[in-house]
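Two proteins follow. First one:
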Amino acid sequence: LMFLLFFLGFAPSCTDGFEEMNRHPFERTEASIPTVFNSVISNLMLGYMEQNSIGYYYFVSQQLANSAPRYILAQGVDEIWNQYYGMLKNVRWLENELESSSLKVDNVTACLNILIAYKTLLTADYVGDMPFSLAGKGAQGSDFYRVAYDKHEDIYKYCLDVLKSSVESFKDADDQMTLGGGDVLFNGDYEMWKKFANSIRLRYAIQIADVDNAQATTHISNILGNVAQYPLITGDETIGMWPKQLGGLVVESRPWYFSAENLTCMGSTMWDMMSDNYNTDGSGFYDPRYKIFFETNGNNEWIPQQQNGANPVQGRGPYINSSYPNGRDRALTQQEWDNKGDAAFYSSVNYYLGRDDENLPEIIMSVAEVHFLKAEAYNRGIGVTQNAATAQAEY
C-alpha cells in the first residue's frame, strides 16, 4: 500500500515531456497537404486482389480465356472496399484543411475533387450502393461511425457534376497554393488535370447511356460541344502511373497476379479478331500485336483456348517454370526459356507483358479509349448529331 501511494504521488509528473519522449525519431509526426494528397494519388495503383479480380473480367468480356480461376472474386471486392475507405479518411482531412486554409486553394481543391470522383466511380462500379456522402468522417464524432449507404445512381450523378464543376473552378492566378512534389500524377499541370476530368466524365457518361440517357446526353453534349472549354487527352497524353517517371516505382500487383494465377491465355474470341485462320504456325495473323500480347504454347504452337469451358486446364508453367515466381527470368539457355510446362496447352499472355513491373505503366485512362468513346457517341448519336463518318474517323 505504501508503495502504491508513493507511486501515485509521482504520477502527475509522468506527463511532463510526454509528446517529446514519444516522438518518432525518424518519421514525420505532422502531415502536410501535399504529403497527404500524394497518399491519395498512391491509391490509384491496383491492389493485388483487385488485379486478380480484373482477370475475371477478362474472361467475362471474352478478351482472354481463363480455364480455372483459383481465387474468389469477393477477395478482390474486400480489398477494393478497404483501400477506398482507408483513402477516404485522408480525403476528409484534406477537405477540412483546405476549407480552413488562409491560402487560395481553388486549384488544389479542384484536383482533390477530381481524384475522389474518379476513385468513387471506380469503386461504385464494383460494389453498387455504398456509404459516400457521410463516409470517412469518423474523426468528427460518433454520429459518423455508422452512416447510410448512397445509391449507385446518386453517386454517379454527383460525381459527374463534380467533375464538370471542378474543371470550371481552376484559376490562372499566380497566388494559388501549389502541391509541389505532392502532385506526382501531373506535376502541377492543371491543363492535364482538366483533360483527365473531362475524359473520365466522358467515360462514365457513355457508360450510363442505356440506363439514364438524359444524364448521359447532358454531359456528352457539354464536353463534345465545347472542346476548347472541356479538352480531352490526345496524342501522347495517356494517363497512368509511369515507373520511370516516379523514381523507380515497382508495379507489384501485375507480376504477382500472372505468376500466382496465370491460367489466362488467348481465347478463341480474341483469336478470331486477330487471325484469318487457325494455322498453328501463326501464318493467319494479320494483327501485328499478337506477339506482344501472347506467346506460343509449350509445343511452340499458336493455339487459342475455346471459350466454352470444355478445355483442359492451362498450367502456370509459362510463368513459374523452374522457380516460383518468375522462373523464366533465370533461364540461361533457349531450352530453359522454352520450357513452359507440360500443361501449357494454349497461347498464354506474353510473359514479359505480365512480368514487367519496372517499365510498363499502370494505365488509368488511355487516349485510345477516348477516341473509342467518341466513336461510340457519334455512332449512336448520344449527345451529338449521329455521324457515321466521324465515328469511323475516331475509331
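Second one, unrelated to the first:
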Amino acid sequence: FLAALVALNMDQAELAAAAEGLTVEKPEALLDEPRFMAIIDLRIDAKNQQLARFETIKKYRILRNEFSQATGELTPSLKVKRNVVLERYAGLIEDMYAE
C-alpha cells in the first residue's frame, strides 16, 4: 500500500489552522494539536478522493522539518535524495508498514 512522509510548509499550515480558528504561539506547536491533525486528515482524504483506489495514501506521518539542501535531503535542483530520506526516516517508514 502507499504510505507517505509529509513535510509541511509551516507558513501554509499556520494559515490553514487560523482559518479553522486554531492559533498557537509557534507554528511547530500545531504538530502536537489534535485539531490540526484532523485538518490534515481531511486534506489528505480530499486528495485521495481524486485518485484511483490503488493510488490513495493509506498511512502517513508528518515530519517536523521540511526537506532541504542543508540537511542533505534535497539535491541542488530540489529533487528528493531517496536514499537519504529512506535512511533518515527508516523508523517512521517501518512503523507505517508494521501497523
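SUMMARY FIELD: The chain has a mean pLDDT of 92. The helical segments are 10-19, 34-49, 82-88, 90-98.
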